[in-house]
Design brief:
The protein is α/β, with parallel strands linked by helices. Helix content is 50%, strand content 14%. The protein has helices at residues 11-22, 34-43, 51-54, 68-78, 96-108, 121-127, 138-148, 163-191, 196-204, 211-215, 238-255, 260-277; strands at residues 3-7, 26-30, 46-47, 60-63, 87-90, 112-115, 118-119, 130-135, 152-159. Strand 5, helix 5 (96-108) and strand 6 (112-115) form a beta-alpha-beta unit. Helix 1 (11-22) runs parallel beside helix 6 (121-127), helix 8 (163-191) crosses helix 11 and helix 11 (238-255) runs antiparallel to helix 12. The protein is globular and about 65 Å long.
Length: 292
């Protein structure tokens, strides 16, 4: 059993914290909203009245927040009050430069840090099947691993400081390209009179097979239990994909990487979001190919 403090009970954080409670840990939670705090108390967690009191007995602090500025502001407030040698694990998706700065900030205050962004979506957070992609020293990653395994199915050590963030945005850039291409191919088939269910099965058994066809088909009513068959609700929001694609483009610019497909995917998702689709699942990019 570990004494864990969890910050950020959004769609992802709520499921992650719940799995830590189910694993038998003493979990203290803090969020700006009352509703998720009440849900976690009902599951067996302790709710803190403020961020500093939340960490007074913590061995491990986990954050799942919207952006790097939120993580930095929280840590700057907490670090002087945390028990000596606390292990901080940030599971947010943030800029790799911000993650590197957090490594230095945390260590300069006598603590340990791992950047560990996640993949797997809300369903994976609830089911405890997330993939964690970690950046940090071998020793710190090994210390974080048993905690993360209680919330996920796969844990990878991508490399040193900030490497988890780089690996995450590379994966999500590919995911955006893949989803847009899958949507485009299926719409072409439909426009030429083919059944999207049949076309999906053909591609799944052919060289066009990919993750979207197997697990996350973007065409409504082709696959059960996915956002496209539920009016694109739930899942990974277009707004969040746009955030990750912006991070990917920033990383590409910093290192003069050539990413024409990623840049095109970013433009497609930006237009899709600006048309009022930001709160829909990212597979709704399929709708960008529909005729007016």
């Amino acid at each position: 059993m570990h004494k864990i403090t969890f910050f950020g009970l959004g769609n992802m954080g709520l499921g992650m914290a719940s799995n830590l409670v189910s694993a038998g840990n003493q979990v203290t939670v803090y969020d700006l909203l009352e509703a998720p705090l009440e849900l976690m108390v009902n599951k067996g967690a302790l709710a803190a009245s403020d961020s500093i009191s939340a960490i007074k007995d913590a061995q491990v602090v986990i954050s799942m927040l919207p952006a790097g500025k939120h993580v930095k502001a929280l840590y700057e407030k907490l670090l002087a009050h945390a028990p000596t040698n606390t292990l901080f694990i940030d599971c947010s998706t943030i800029d790799a430069l911000d993650a590197k700065a957090l490594h230095k900030l945390v260590r300069s205050n006598g603590h340990r840090f791992v950047d560990a962004p996640v993949s797997g979506g809300v369903a994976g957070a609830s089911a405890g099947t997330l993939t964690f992609i970690m950046g940090g020293s071998k020793e710190e990653v090994e210390q974080a691993m048993p905690i993360l395994q209680q919330m996920g199915k796969h844990c990878f050590h991508a490399g040193g400081e900030g490497a988890g963030q780089i690996a995450k945005i590379c994966n999500n850039m590919l995911l955006a390209v893949l989803m847009a291409g899958t949507s485009e191919a299926l719409k072409l088939a439909i426009d030429n009179g083919l059944d999207p269910k049949v076309m999906s099965e053909i591609m799944k058994q052919s060289s066009g097979n990919n993750w979207a066809l197997q697990h996350y088909n973007p065409v409504p009513n082709v696959m059960e239990g996915v956002p496209s068959s539920n009016e694109y609700s739930g899942g990974f929001l277009v707004d969040l994909m746009n955030k990750d694609l912006s991070l990917a483009m920033s990383a590409a610019t910093a290192n003069q990487s050539v990413v024409p497909m990623g840049a095109l995917a970013r433009s497609l998702y930006q237009m899709h979001g600006l048309r009022g689709n930001g709160k829909k699942d990212f597979s709704s990019i399929y709708e960008a190919y529909l005729k007016e």
